[in-house]
Automatic annotation (TrEMBL):
InterPro entries: Crtac1, FG-GAP, Integrin_alpha_N, TPR-like_helical_dom_sf, TPR_2, TPR_rpt, UnbV_ASPIC. This is VCBS repeat-containing protein. TPR repeats lie at residues 900-933, 934-967, 968-1001, 1002-1035, 1036-1069, 1070-1103. Residues 683-742 form the ASPIC/UnbV domain. Keywords: Repeat, Signal, TPR repeat. Pfam families: FG-GAP_3 (PF13517), TPR_16 (PF13432), TPR_19 (PF14559), TPR_2 (PF07719), UnbV_ASPIC (PF07593). It comes from Paludibaculum fermentans.
Amino acid sequence: MKRRQFLAGLAAGGLLTERAHAFAPYPLKFRLAAPYAPALSFVEAGSDEFTGEKAALDQEHQLSRAVREGTLPFSKNCRGGSPAPRAYETLAEGVSRGAFGAEEGVAEGWTRWRASLGEVRSARFYALPDNIARFDIRALRDGRLEHRTGAWRVEWDGAEISRLEPLEETLVRGEKPWFHDVTGHAFEDDPAFREQLARGVPYWRARLDPACGLDVYGENGVAVADIDGDGLDEIYICQPGGLPNRLYKWDGGRLKDISAAAGLDLLDDTACALFVDLRNSGRQDLVLVRSNQPLLFLNDGHGKFQLAPDVFRFATKPQGSFTSVAAADFDRDGRLDLYFCCYVYYQSEAQYRYPVPYHDAQNGPPNFLFRNRLNEKPGYFEDVTAATGMNHNNNRFSFAATWCDYNGDGWPDLYVTNDFGRKNLYRNVEGQFRDVAEEAGVVDLGPGMSAAWLDYDGDGRPDLLVSNMWSACGQRVVNDAAFGPVRKDPALLSSYRHHVKGNSLYRNLGDGRFEYTGDAQGIEMCPWSWSCDGADVDNDGSPELYVACGMVNNGGSTDLMSYFYRQVVAKSPVRQTAAPAYENGWNAINQLIRQDYSWAAPEPNMFFARRAGRYYNFSGVSGLDLAEDSRAFAFTDIDGDGNLDIVLKSRCGPQVRVLQNDCGVDRNKLVLALRGTKSNRDAIGARVEVDGQVKWIAAGSGYLSQHTKRLHFGLSNKSKAEKVTVLWPTGERQDLGPLAAGFLYEVVEGQAQVAAKPLAKPSAWPKGPAVVADNVSRLHSTWFWEPVPLPEKRRGPGLLVVHAGETLPSIDGPVDRLDLRQAPVELAAAYSILRRYLFDHRVELETPLWLLVDGESKVRKIYAEAPDGGELKADLQSLGGPLPEPRGLPFPGIYTGRPRRDYYKFGGALLQAGYPEQALPYLEEMLRRTPDNPKALLAVGRIHLEGKRFDLARGVLQRAVELDPRLPEGWNELGGVEAQAGRWPEALKYYEKALALAPELPYVLLNAAHAQEEAGHGIEAERLFRRLLELEPNNVDAANGLGLFLAKQGKTDEARKLFEKAISIRRDDSSAINNLGVLYMNIGQPNDAIAAFRYGIQVAPDNETLYLNLARVHVQLGQRESARGVMRELLAKQPGNAMAQRALKSLEGQ
C-alpha cells in the first residue's frame, strides 16, 4: 500500500469514538479524557475482541424470554431431540430426574415442555462454552412449587436454533415454601425499619453525604446473640456510615429498637459485629469492625455497652480496610482471642492498590491475630500475628475467616477466605501457625468470599464449604482465544477456569487432607456468592446449605458482569507488575457502578438440601431465593420453638428480612446451650455429638455473619437422643443422655445435671403489613454533613443557581446566578465534576442546579427543586449552627470517630479531566487533613511540575518518597523535575530508582528512554523503547518515540513503519502524524508529506504545528499560494495565532 493510500484509508475509516453512557443535559467536553475512558467504550458486548459475547447474551435473553412467552425460533431443518422428558424418575423425596428420548420433533417437544411448566415465576438461561445452555426455571404448577435445573446443547444459525439436544434436567417440588417472610409482622411497630432499613443502599447513596462514610457496596452484616439472658437472641444490624446501627430485642413477637438505650446506635461505617464473652463474666461483649479499625464495647450487665478505648495494640500499622472478625481460644488459656481480616476496596480516583495478578494476587494487606489480655490492668488485646507464625502467606485480599479444630488435635485451626486467588488453612500446633492449605488440598484458587465448617456427610469430621463465584460469561471469556492472561501463559487456563467454576465443598478425610466434592455434590453453580453456611433447618439430621448472592443492583438495564471479565480480568498481567489496561478496567467499572449500571445483579440467594447422598438446588421451593444483593444472614430461633429461622441482611431494601421456618415444625428436635467453666464461658470451639450428628460452636462464620450460639439438633421422628457427647475446648469430655426431644438443655462444663426447658409450640406468624422497599437513586434536598468547597469564590451566604439559560423562578432573598454559557470552560468543567462527586450516586450536571452557599463559598445544602423564599430564608438563618451539620444525618446516633470527605476524588477527577489548577485546592485540602498522604503529595507534585513551579514540585515529591520510598511514581516525577531543568544525569538517577521498583511500568520506561536519548546514551535509549514495545505492542508513545529516535539515526524505513503503527492505533495522534510528515520531508517525498499533514489537520484540526509544517512543504515546492491558503486555514481556526500571522505576512510579502 502506498503511503498516501495508508493515510487515506485511515481518514476514510473515521475517528475512533467512545460510546456515551451518561447523557448530561448540559453539554460539556472535558479538556482531557480520563485514563480509563477508552475502557468505557467497551461496555456493550461485542464491541471488543470478545466478539462472541453479544451473540451469547442475545441467546440467553432469547431463551429466557421464550420460556416466559412460549415461542422459540427453530430453523426449518432443526435437528436434535425433544427437550421434554418422556418421564421423570424419582431420586429422593421431592427430587426427580428427567429421562429423555420422547418420539417427537424438537419443536413439538419444546411446545409440550413449555406447556408443562405451569405459571413461570422466573426463567434464566446461561450460555456456556461448547454450545451448552444451562437453565434455571422456577414455577407454580397445580398449587405446587417446582424448580427445574438442567442443560441442553444448543447450536444456532444466526437468530435461529439449528440443533437442540437435551442433556439433563432435575425437577424439585415442594407443596409449600420451606420458609415464609414475616418481616412486616416483626417490624410492624418500628418506624426505624420503615424509614431506614426498608430503604437500600441505592436510595441512600443519592440521599446521604458521602462524607458520612457511606459507599456503594453495602458490605454490612448481621449478628445475633442472647445479650440479656431471656432465651431469645437479640439482632444487631450493621449499617453504612451515616446511618445508625440498630439493635433489636424480641417483645411479644415484635422487634423493639433498643440501640440508643444500649449505647450501640453507632453511625460509623460498620462491616460486622460479634457478640462474645471476652472476660468470662457471663456478659456478652461486642466487637465491631469498622473499615478503619475494630472497636470493643464492654457489656456492663445492665443493658448498656461502653466503648473500651485503644484496646487493640497493633504491632504494625494496618494497610487496608477491616472486613470481618472471628473468635476462638487459639492458645487454650480460657479466653477468646480475635482474628481480623483486611481487604482493599475499589475507590476509583482514590485507588492506590490493585490485586495483581488477578488469579493469584499476593499484594494484599495483612490480617491480624490478637491475644486476649483483658485479664490484665488495664486490659488490652496484644497483636501476636508475627509471634505466632500467622504472617505466613499473610498477603492476600481477605474477606472472612472461620475457626475449627479440623484435625482433632484439640487446637483450633483457621481457614481464611481470600479474593483473587489462594486461601489459607492455618494449622495450629500448640499456639503456633503455618499455612498448610497446599498440603491439605484446600488452596481453592478463586474469588473467595466466605467459608464455613460443617459435617455434611455425617462422618463426624468438619468438612469445608467455600463461597466463590460461578459465572457463565466468565466461563465464556476465560475460554476464549482472545483472553489475555492465557494468551501470554497457556498454563494459566486451569487457574482461570477454577476462578469461574463456583462454590467449593471439601470432604475431610481424617488424615489432615481434604477431598474436593463440590462438583459431585452439586453445589458449585452459585452466582456471585457472599455468606455461606449450613444448618439442619428441616430437622432431618442433615445440614442444608444457604448462600447469600448478588453484587450491585442499581436498577439499570445493563449488567457489567461480562464487561468485568472482558475489560478487567482479561487485562490482568500474569505476574505482579503494573498493568495500565487492567487498572483502567477496574477504574472504569467503579465509575459505572456509581452511576446506574448493575454488576452481577439481581441474583437470587441459593439453598441446597441433601437427598440420597448429594445436594440438590431447592432454592425455588425454599422461600429464601430473594434477589436483593444479600450479603449476610444469621441462623437463629426467633420464637423459641427449636426450629432455626433466618435473619437476612442485604444491600438493597429491605436491608433486613425475617424468615420463619415452616419446614422443621413437624419433626422432633432438641437444643443445647453450653457454658464453659474451665473453657471460655461461651464454649466457642466445643464439639458436640448427638447420636452421630456433630456440630461445633463458632463465633463468626460465613461473611459478616454471626449465628446463634445454641446448637440445634434435628431428630426426625425420634423422641429422644440416646447419646450426647460434649468435647469442651479444654479437651475434657462430658457424656450426657438420653435426652428427650422438645427441650432446650443448658449444659455447664463439669456438671452432670442439665437444666431442661420445654421448647415453645410452633406457631406460624402472619406476614404482617406489606414491606415497601425503596431502591431508587434520586436527588433529595440534602444538607451536607461536611460543607463542600465551590471551585471558585462566590457571593454568599445565599442561593447559587447554576444554569444554562433556562427560565428561572423569582425567589425572594440573596440569589447568585452562574450562567455556564458565559463561564470559562474550565469553570464549567469544575462545576460538572463538583456535581458528579457530591454523592456516591454519580450523575452528570443538570441545570438548573440549586445550591445553598455560605459566606466561605462552601455548599451547605443542595435542593431537589427551586426553594421558595420562605425555605431559603429559614435555611440562611440557620447557617450559624455547629459543624459538622447535624441535619446532614437523617437519624440520631453516635460517631466514635469522625469520618472525613475524600477530597482526593474531587481533585483526582479534575486532574484527570485536564484541569490541574482547579484540582489543586481540593488536593491541598486533603493534605491539610492528612499531610502524610503520599498519593495526594504525588498529585500535588505533578500539578506543580506541569505548572513549571519546579521548586514546589521538588519539595512535595521528595516528601512523598520520604514517606513511601517504594513509590515508583514519586521517583518518576522527580525525574521529570530534573528533566524539565535539562539535568539529564540527575533525571536518570530518579528514573532508574523508579524502574528498580517497577521495571515494567510503561510511562517510567518511556521517560527513561527519552532521558537516555537526551543524555547521549543511544543504545540504552533504544533498548528501553524496544522493551516497552515488547510489553505493550500497542503503546503509541513508545512506537512514536522509537520511530523518532530511529529517524534521527537515519533508519527511516523502520521509523516510518513505527509512525504508521502509532497512527493506526491512535488515529488522531498528532505527534506521530507530524513526525511521519517530517520524515517524508526529510527523505524527499513531499507529496507523501503533504498527505500526512493534510490527514493530521483533518483529525487534529487544532494542532498548529501540522499547518506550519504543511505550509513549509508547499514553500519548498514553490507553491506559495497553497502555503498562504494553509495559513489562512489556521487563522480561521485560531484568529489570534501570532506565528500564523507572521508566516502569512512573510508569504504575502514574497
